[in-house]
Amino acid sequence: MRERTIASHFARAALGGARRRGLDYSGLLQQLGISPELLDEPRARIAPEQFTRLIQGLWLALDDEYLGFGNAPSKPGSFAMMCHASIHCRNLEKALQRGLLFYSLFPDAPRLTLRREDEWVRLSLDDAQSWDPDHFLSESLLVIWHRLGSWLIGQRIRLEQATFSYPRPEHGSEYDLLFPCPLTFDAEQSSLLFHSRYLAMPLLQDERTLKHFLERSPADLLSRPDDGDSLSSRLRRLLSRDAAHWPDLEAVAAHLHISPQTLRRHLREEGSSFQELKDQLRRDIAIYHLGRAELSLQQIAEQLGFSEPSAFHRAFKKWTGLTPGAYRSQEQ
């Protein structure tokens, strides 16, 4: 229930390659309960499960794990074969090197490189040759390799910096869910920077855990936002324990052993606010329940602490551009 929802931008962007290839994906969207109305609304959100299934459906329909954005298609099964080739390596450095070597065997594949910079290591992507107007493939590849590496060693790799070879896009506010670290746009290349100590860590996964991992990956790697260790993420986890009885800012500050002024300032530095965090969490919990039939609109409003269903109705439309009723009807 605490899963973060996905901005409609990413669903529209993911469909770009299908449009380019002339694929009629209306049946797939109908099957997933994603209406054109929802896709056209910039503020709308979709559930992570829907997004995972959308990516998987597009892979099958296009016969291409690059979703139509690469110079040449990547046959379904390529990612799984790369994982099988890497899973027996003794540490993360060997596994990443073998995985990157695997993709380098395909001349038209986007090129990724790993290089050390003193105590740091940079994973760089050459995305100059891709047809990727919304940068969907670039973002996806960086996210997938970061989260694959984290999964292999059984702990989250803390990112120190993410750079992008293009200007900050309109959906830049969503980047904290993908890359919870300092961001640099208009850079020489797209890359991720992390500490080299991770490279020596042994792999904690094996063929058995890989089989389970590949049932949904890498699609669910894209749909599972990285909460990171920011103050916003910690507050979200704290608030999500009881959505109907929100602690006020003063109570939260006391829980964190800081002053309310310091809490406000830290959130402002992260580009957020206490009210914005509460609204985002309420929105995501509402979308979770609206996608299921267990609770009425009134019960959802009560669970979120609204005294009147009409107040919930107005708030939800402000958050997503759709009314709760319209959202539920297109989900069915």
TrEMBL record:
All residue ranges annotated as the HTH araC/xylS-type domain in the record: 233-330
This protein's record includes keyword Transcription: yes
InterPro entries: AraC-type_N, Homeodomain-like_sf, HTH_AraC, Tscrpt_reg_AraC-type_HTH
Keywords: DNA-binding, Transcription, Transcription regulation
Gene3D superfamilies, sorted: Homeodomain-like (1.10.10.60)
Name the record gives this protein: AraC family transcriptional regulator
Species per Swiss-Prot/TrEMBL record: Pseudomonas siliginis
